[in-house]
């Protein structure tokens, strides 16, 4: 039986490394300093995700992940980005039902010099999935309101920067707050901003585990919506 993975925090050199990477953005420099990246950033992040996956499984919470499928790469995909720098200057990963980053309904972590936070919810839904999510909010407004209230009670902030300026097509008659805001959102995600010190200790694992437990009502709600229109 494999030994259980433990997480004790990102390395003390992790943020200095990411800051320097932003300055150099050079492949030769990165490969020369790659051992620092692996030791201070990548390996701890893998430990964090795999230790959380094991804890969620034990708690019968359907969130999974591993260091192969759940960690975002340091190499930027410049095909779809206005920023053509070859490397990102943050570390990020997520746990989902399937354990892959392509799934939606997640607990997510983002660690950088600029802003470090954890988040849960649904991001970037499109087409039928987004319509189904909005329609379920309309049908079960009181239930969704209770979910929002429950998460906000724990200090999680509903991200509203992505809200449309007017109601989307098919929802023009929706009125009143906060219902109109919920319908206009493109992302239904809740966030908790954390200090670098929390990420450099085992506490970030505790924060993510607590968020995962508290987010289950939201995740189950969203999964019901998107599963109703998903092609099997």
Q: Care to describe what's here?
A:
This protein has 232 residues and is an alpha+beta fold. It has a single domain (14-227), classed as BirA Bifunctional Protein, domain 2 (2-Layer Sandwich), CATH 3.30.930.20. The protein contains 8 helices and 5 strands; from the N terminus they run H-H-E-E-E-H-H-E-H-E-H-H-H. The protein has helices at 14-24, 27-58, 127-139, 141-153, 179-184, 196-199, 203-214, 216-227, and strands spanning 90-96, 106-112, 117-122, 157-158, 188-193. The chain has a 5-stranded antiparallel β-sheet. Strand 2 (106-112) and strand 3 form a beta hairpin. Helix 3 (127-139) crosses helix 8 (216-227). It is globular. 31% of the residues are buried. The model has no long low-confidence stretch (mean pLDDT 95).
How are the strands of the largest sheet arranged?
1-2-3-5-4
Proportion of residues in helical segments: 40-55%
Radius of gyration from CA coordinates: 19 Å
Looking at the overall shape, the CATH architecture is: 2-Layer Sandwich
Pattern of helices and strands: HHEEEHHEHEHHH
Morphology:
globular
Biggest sheet descriptor: 5 strands, antiparallel
Give the tags:
single chain; 232 residues; alpha+beta; BirA Bifunctional Protein, domain 2; 5 strands; 44% helix; 12% strand
In short, what is this structure?
44% of the residues lie in helices and 12% in strands. It has 232 residues and is α+β, with helices and mostly antiparallel strands. It has one domain: 2-Layer Sandwich (BirA Bifunctional Protein, domain 2), CATH 3.30.930.20.
